[in-house]
Amino acid sequence: MKQFRVFIRNLSMAGLFLFVTKMAIAHPGGHYLPNDVFNTWTLASGRTIEGNFLMAHDNTIVLEQKGGGRITVFVDLLSDQDKALALFKIRKYNTLNEQVRVNQPADLSLLESAFEPYQPAVTTSSDENYFYVSSRGIANHPMMIGITSWQQQVPIPQNYSGSNAWPIPLRPVLAETPMSTRNNFMRGAIAIAVNGIPIFNALNNRGEDAYLIGELDNWGGHCGKGDDYHYHTAPLHLSAISLLKPIAFALDGFAVYGEKEPDGSAVLPLDECHGHFAANGLYHYHGTKNYPYMIAAMRGKVNTDNKTPAPENQILPQAFTAPVRPPLKPLRGAVITNCVATANNAFSITYKIAGKNGSVNYYWDEKNSYYFTFIDTDGNQTTASYERRNGRKKD
To answer: What is the dihedral of CA 234, 112, 280, 17, to 10 degrees?
Structure first.
């Protein structure tokens, strides 16, 4: 539904004092029938408004009128008597909502339905505290294409399963002081996409926007030093499959939606964490095309690894990667032009430097051995093979 606002100007007060709007705030109270009696509110100017208290937002109250219309009134513009009444109702309203918001209820059905379209590549389970997401870390779309700043990492399967599955808290708790992603979480993931791909901070470990400096592919992802594919921006492309369901879940337990609200309406204003409370009192984030893309600060409480201080801290618990080979150096000037699966356990990546083609072809076997063939832009070919368990190069 489109958002309509009808502004009414009171010239004697030289400002806007009310508007008709559609809002989504926690625990509204109204929904009245046509024959119901409506209260009369008096402005300091003497003008009166009919409507029953529905909800509050900042220094305003929302009144529901006949036919379901809503009017937002600035409290400071009410008469002294009605201002006192409005402040009393706001206090009661905030107390009710705070009781709901402090401990967000678990919603297993939402979690299960969000990941269901990506089965069997993604499987899920749960216990009393966490909802677990298992996957091989290989995306359901092409990867790597479009990267212009490449460190020669390639996507290989990861063992995100069993005790190394991605944990999502079932009962997220709001943080008193949300932790900013500008100053924290430069290591590890901050969320897990519903296709089983982890999502890292939009900033790399040097504090740079990974997307703006060309490190990411056309889907907002790339591979880390462990050859682990992950996103650094919101996977908005997943909305083509997920529709109005969440496209990810933050590791604080809150859902991440795309560019629409869960009911299909336009996204309401976002707070400093890049999310907001829905009409049911539950918090969620939204993905956008611009920084911070998804999460500006963790609205929920998270535990961090004390071994590394901010900004190199990371959220715990989370899944970890097992590198196959040592990281290589950046390949300056390379632009990845294609990445295709050549078999169930093999990929080929092609790239260009100054108009000349190079490639990396690799596969793995059931014994966890990985075999690489590198062909540089001059046609020179080298090979290497590794064992998974410790990244040791094979003889």
So the answer is: 20
Q: Are strands 356-364 and 346-353 parallel, antiparallel or unpaired?
A: antiparallel
Give the span between the Cα atoms of 200 and 221, in whole angstroms.
9
pTM of the model: 0.75
Beta strands 315-316 and 303-304 are antiparallel
Domain residue ranges of the chain, discontinuous segments joined by +: 7-102, 108-316, 335-387
Which helix (H) or strand (E) element contains residue 111? helix 108-115
Q: What is the side-by-side order of every strand in the sheet holding 335-343? A: 335-343, 346-353, 356-364, 369-375, 381-387
pLDDT of residue 281: 82
CATH H-level superfamily of 7-102: SLA1 homology domain 1 (2.30.30.700)
For 137-193, what is each residue's pLDDT tens digit?
999 999 999 999 999 999 999 999 999 999 999 999 999 999 999 999 999 999 999
Angle at 376 between CA 374 and CA 377, to 5 degrees: 155
Among 194, 206, 279, residue whose Cα is nearest residue 231: 194
196 neighbors 135 (Cβ within 8 angstroms): yes
